[in-house]
Amino acid sequence: MPLKTLLRHTLLLLCLLGTPPLHAEADYTLGEGIQIGSLPVYVGGYFSVDYRNRDDEQRYRIDDIALLSYGGNSTLSYMLELEYKEFYVNTRNGGSTTVERDTHLYVERVHLNYSINDHYTLRIGKYNTPIGFWNLMHINVLRDTTSNPVSSYILYPMFTTGANLTYSSFEQAAWHVDLIAQRSKAIDDGYNNYTIDRHFGLGVSYEQQRFTCKLSGGYFQKVPHRNNPDIYYALVAAKYETDTYHIQAELGSQRSSKTATTPYAGYLQGAYYITQRHIGIARYESYRNDLLDESDRFFLLGYTYRPLYPVALKAEYQWHSEAAKNQLLLSFSVLF
Amino acid sequence: MQRLLLSLLLLTLFSTLCTAQEYAVIANKKMPRLTLEQIRAVYLKKLQRLDNTAMVPVNLSANDPLRKRFEEHVLRMSFQRLQSYWSRQHYLGRRPPVSMKSQESALSFVKSVEGAIAYVHAAIADDDVHILYRWSD
Fold first, then answer.
1. Which end of chain A has fewer surrounding CB within 10 Å, N or C?
2. Across the interface, which of B80, B86, B92 has its CB nearest the CB of A32?
């Protein structure tokens, strides 16, 4: 067994050993993890299963099985997330069935956070690229719908391996500035939408009571460099959130000096809490991908039932500009 | 008769005013003045250090009526919205504030821990703590 695989499975085993017999808290709250003894170390995780019906194809999938571990103090803290992705996929098309399994244990996130002073925090490692809103909460159980908006995985690398310097200020409103830098091979680049070894970006966000807006931009380079030019992206995002509804939108563009990429990709979404357990979602998306010479506009209606917040049963239907792409998605996910 | 009714009305109004509860967000004596937005950021663990001191927000227990008042008035979030917020923070590696069983425990904690911040009935906040913010029903 390769050393890296052995290390990952050892870390997973250590996370699992830190569960109930050692936890100090007498009452466990689903969705908030478990403390390891009296140490400032916590363990949690999540999983999701989903079903898709599109055209003549049906797909059943055990998608995420993940373990989280994090902890530390107000100055220094860490995060580790290990995940099986698409652990089991059963696809039926016409009369044929294919089964795929991916038993590779991916490192989705691993980073250290150092609080330099009141305003500055430095993160080193592999982390969710802090662009837009969706990418920071992209796991099934925390996001609004089973599907992700196209703009969240087509415009910029979802994960960055390197440094992230954040400036934060809280006076009458909250300001955050993120500087992103990667200049090396990625940690476990099999778990990313782009295989990159260069990524530099800047993001600015403003939050005032219920309203938040973010403006981000950057450039990255895929490997191998010889065949891939620099790619530039920009994204604007806004959100308005109350106890009964929220509206959010993201719109971005990706360009390269040498090849056509994505002139635009964006979405506008509204979610309404019919009750705190029953949520209705509507989303409109539109994008153009010149690299694949494709474009699409589609509308989505979704429903989520959360008997408890960390448990989500979701259903959605998408109507696309091409009827063949219309699809039904169902999923069940839990955060623990 | 009219005078009697008017007197009763005034008495009722006066009694209501007298029993209006006042609450206070309190902090350790060394804590500088915080804006309401900063108090909110401390309790949501968005602001974790100030003047190089670790912020230690303290909640009362989940079923304490004062906690509900604080969450609605200062945090401006319902209980359910806070539940969803802390689940998302768990994914980001952040823990909710510690809970104390009584206001007296919270008061004692705030006096002894630099960076501690809590909320209590204003009547029990003494000169050994710094009152950051007051509100009433």
1. N
2. B86
State the pTM of this model.
0.87
Query: Which residue out of B91, B94, B99, B117 would a mutagenesis test of the A interface target, given it has the greatest number of A Cβ atoms within 10 Å?
Result: B91
**B69: DSSP letter:** H
Burial of A249 (0-12, 13-18, 19+ CB in 10 A): buried
Residues of chain B in contact with residue A71, where contact means CB-CB under 8 angstroms, are 93
Q: What is the largest CA-CA distance in chain B?
A: 67
A108: buried, middle or exposed (CB in 10 Å: 19+, 13-18, 0-12)? buried
- What residues in A contact B93, CB-CB < 8 Å? 68, 70-71, 77-79, 113
Distances (CA, A) of A245 to A157, B23, B126: 29, 29, 41
C-alpha dist (Å) from residue A25 to A22, A35, A40, B12: 9, 7, 12, 47
What is the spatial distance between Cα B23 and Cα B120, in angstroms, rounded to a whole number? 6
Q: Is A240 on the interface with B (CB under 8 A)?
A: no
B65-111 tens-digit pLDDT: 999 999 999 999 988 889 899 999 999 999 999 999 999 999 999 99
* Contact status, residue B26 vs residue B125, Cβ threshold 8 Å: yes
d(CA A215, CA B82): 26
- Omega into B32 within 30° of 0, i.e. cis? no
The verdict on a CB contact (< 8 Å) between B91 and A74 is: no
